[in-house]
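Researcher: Last one for today. Full complex below.
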Amino acid sequence: MMNNSNINHLQGPVCSLPLHHNDQIVIGHGSGGQMTNDLIKNVFYQKFSNPILDMNNDAALIDLLLDNDKKGFLVTAIDAHIVSPLFFSGGDIGRLAICGTVNDVAMLGAKPLYITASFIIEEGFSINALEKIASSMQLACQEANVKIVAGDTKVTEKGKSDGLFISTTGIGWVPASRQIGGQFARPGDAVIISGTLGDHGIAVLEARGDLGFHSAIQSDVAPLNEMIEILLTEVPNTHVLRDPTRGGLATSLVEIAYQSEVTIQIDETSLPIRPTVQTACEMLGFDPLYIGNEGKVIVILPEADVDNALEALRSHPYGKAAVRIGSVVQNSPGRVLLTTPLGSNRILEMLAGEILPRIC
Amino acid sequence: MMNNSNINHLQGPVCSLPLHHNDQIVIGHGSGGQMTNDLIKNVFYQKFSNPILDMNNDAALIDLLLDNDKKGFLVTAIDAHIVSPLFFSGGDIGRLAICGTVNDVAMLGAKPLYITASFIIEEGFSINALEKIASSMQLACQEANVKIVAGDTKVTEKGKSDGLFISTTGIGWVPASRQIGGQFARPGDAVIISGTLGDHGIAVLEARGDLGFHSAIQSDVAPLNEMIEILLTEVPNTHVLRDPTRGGLATSLVEIAYQSEVTIQIDETSLPIRPTVQTACEMLGFDPLYIGNEGKVIVILPEADVDNALEALRSHPYGKAAVRIGSVVQNSPGRVLLTTPLGSNRILEMLAGEILPRIC
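Model: Here's the assembly. Have a good evening.
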């Protein structure tokens, strides 16, 4: 996942603009793109740097050093969820809060096990809505086979927050034999996406009434750990997993290209985008490659494993539309090229500011 | 710690008022007292119940089942921090976010190791303030000897949050030989408090300008894990540790009395309260027993260990004013009695609603 919003992602060769002390937070700082990257790098990363944080992946890998037989790592990740509105077609903030964090943990090949959740609630918020959201979390936990093991609840005065914010930390376990991460893409690898792009962002826009027309688009928000386990059983040699959330496919690929110091070439005609999402993006002036997803994963693995990987992904309901979209090539490191239908190459950059605030 | 706001605390015999579906969140739901308890019990606990959550302590105890030699448990806890204002005498939201979670983990006798942190920032927030807060977190992490291993940053539009909210999850490890928890208080045990009561709540009130006069009170916000390690080395047979945060000493003691099914008797004359805090409470109509602390711990242990425990606590800067304040007695279970200077007994209840919103 792109998630350079995650402190784990803050290092690497992505260039960073200096912040000035008198600057203020602007909406773009929450975009998950370059500005978020700059903010985190300049403010948090500088202060918090340590070997675990510096590993620069979606979740933190913690060696418990407990045992030589069952050698492995604890994996943890945190996400704050501020989506507006709280309910949208295909999901709500509760499902999002569980799936987002479960997926972050699963992106290192780990089995997500436990969740901690904190709730910041605005005075006046409906208890009924809170119960619906808690039920939705419960269902998502059952589906992902994780347990919420600790929580905390705080309330602000009316007007000092916006309904409900939920932060979740995920804790999981990965055997030491699995080596998966954004730094492992190699020239010769293939790039796969597990399904259609942009569904989540457009579904949230529609729920806001910002679409201007009615679409049948549902958010793809889903826990991907079961599908990923099937994939990794079939293709243990998978190199990279990342869920393209805030910032979309393009931003995630740029991140991986920087982490692995490779060029990634994507074939535009291969990208799976629903016609309604494409239409909505054209009307609103958005590029679907930068729209956030909440139930998709980028898979990068050796060319020889592509067929097995596609079969594994397509065997699961969340991977039915899995397709190969490109390759890892050598030339200039840290670059993503989009090959258009006419055969020309367009350089994809990381999302610069914010185009869709508060979609997660 | 009282922390019935923590989902871990939601069970037990404390009676609970039913919530109605059309109810709204009110400030009292964030109090950490009875209303928070009711809310969490009726909304979250019903949905999320599982054996780890049901253990009903400040942090979740996770058996990794990894090893027979080094048998122990992963411990995790989460806290959302919404203190207003962000800076106060003796600390800020950053120090609070680290110490609150470190202390929750330490209350099970665990060694806190790792922190995940999420930031919800209001558009327009000062980067300079954010840097100060990050520095404060860094210092608190150094003092507590913990590492921030993952993070996430989100930004809301101006007016949709209030400056900065920080959620932190702590992860630690406790050897299986340590059995410490709110359920282990036994008749014949002594009750100790590690220092003065109410300093944090009154310091935040003063920073808000709500005190009406100037006091020199500083918040006690501090990581207690080092002091607790000294205590547990001296007195391995410690039964209960709890930090009396939201809801104050009285609410924490009521919680422990319910969890252990005992009566706790406290001697009012023994309670360490600074004269300025006492004066402020009298002027404002507050009872210092219900004011939140962020650097104090209630210790319950066998009578025979009292002297060793006090010596151990007083050997550390954060425990200089440690003092014995009462005993665990048998009679009616789930009751806390305050013996006044005149010798009469007053029953202490859990904090009912909210008296000091947003002190943590």
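Residues 1-16 of chain B have pLDDT under 50 and may be disordered. Chain B is about 25% helix and 25% strand.
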